[in-house]
Amino acid sequence: MNKTVTINLNRTVYHIDEAAYDTLYNYLQALKKHFTKSDSSDEIMADIEARISELLQMKLKGNKQVVQAEDIDEIIGIMGKAEDMGDASEQAQQADNSKKNNDEKSSFKTKRLYRDTDNRILGGVCSGMAYYFSVDPVIVRIIFLLTFFFAGPLLYLIAWGIIPKALSTAEKIEMRGEPMDINSIEKNIKEEFNDVKNRFKEYKRDFRQNRGADFFYNIIHYMGRAIGLLFAFVLIAVGIALLTGLSISTFSVNSIDCGEGNICMQTFMQHFVNAPQDFSMGAIGLFLFFGIPLLLIIWGGISILLGIRNRFKLIGYTGFVLWVAGIFLIGYAGAKTGHSFGEKAFVKTDTSFSVKGIKAIRINTTDPLDDCINTAGDRINTKHLKIADCENGLIFYGEPQIKVEYTLSDTVSIEIVKKSRGSSKQDARERAKNIEFVINQQDSTLLIDKYFELKNIDKWRKQEVRIIIKVPESKKQLLSDDLQ
Amino acid sequence: MGTDNTNSQLKKGVLELCILSLIKEEEAYASDIIDKMKEAKLLVVEGTLYPLLTRLKNDGMLSYRWEESTQGPPRKYYKITPAGKKYHSDLNQQWQELISSVEQIIK
After folding, report:
1. pTM for this one?
2. Cβ of A35 and B45 within 8 Å?
3. ipTM > 0.85 for the complex
4. CB atoms inside a 10 Å sphere around CB A297
């Protein structure tokens, strides 16, 4: 079963099969085009159509109701194709011949520069140029953005003003450089028609809108677009800035500018976590956690400027997965590190000194570490953790907590408690033992070390030293001022 | 090269002569002219005729009137004009001269 089209030729009605109709239509269009160059083309076409009508009449004798494709083919054979026909004017004949020669030599298509308002981001300048140079519009936009800061938006505005919009079908075809013939025009018209159909539906919905508002609507519309683009730029700039900062702080090998009071992530992390791979994982995790959102922001900005739809389909999913992976990495590194701080232990020593020999008890004002600490390149100085970056390497040290107790006995005793954390009781105890801290008796003075130090540059596990100086009440004056 | 060109030019000139001759004999429809051409085995697609007929009419060599026909809608019925007769005899003379010259050469 096929569809039928009803036509009339020379005022006679014919039913013609749909496919046959297309053939006939194209044929007549070709003839029309062939004869447009001559005068009285209408008359010639009328004569030809009349003749075709006669021929069809002869074919439809009997019970046959519908003209078929074979009939049309026959008729075209009888009437002849456009090229085979003569012409009503001399010029057209020569034009025909020269056209044949040209077709053999080259297929010359004129291409003109228009603005493509159907596929535009702002004004369609880049889109139109893309057609003219036969490149992908995205590439043109990238180049435009790169040169944007040199050429400036002024050039774009000038181009916007000068290059005409491609409004009509013919202009659009010229813009694309398609051969101007029946088929491409027809294709274009069909596309346009669908476009118009859809737009008309929308228009009907919005019909109550005031005419005067159109003008303001346009202004706001364009301003909005421009602001939107500006916003995209800002997104990209901010994103890149933050991302650079994040990368540097996460991945740089040498710590930067850790002065007093500044926490230097690098150094801290290296000695905080248990193993290098934990550190790396944690670092990567952090980078992903903060970096992925930044990357997405940058990508959002770029995709707006390049006019990419579906911007977050693939990238969004990958980004999300990586971001979650980052969280897991952080969690894992954190858990492993936390584990190594899980247990705590301490080591206690008690030393007694006879009162007779002691004339003073004080904290040593100097310490072998002083040289290093004062000339250190970088330092971390917090209540619980002090690190100094000296020539031989990193020194971990701290100040002991000192408590004084007055007793009724007649001896001076000092209790030293070294504390540490570790992944097991034994591990914690080992680390506690590793803390270097002594109290010396020099002549008649008890010197308390100013700092305790972690031997072997042990990992930091919240090592602490607490000393309790037990002194008889009556001998209070033995203590230096700062101890009382 | 221009063999197609020459051929169609030649044919065109010849066709004018033929058309005018036939219509000079008696008034005719376009389809009659085609039929007679086919009888004489002069190969031409029908479409060639209409522009020629129209041009001859525009140049005043032919005139037509609408004739009702039994086969359907009215058709153009062509007739030669005095100017057309003159043009025809010119063409005819040229043709004869051409034939004799060519015959002489190819013998």
Report:
1. 0.41
2. no
3. no
4. 18
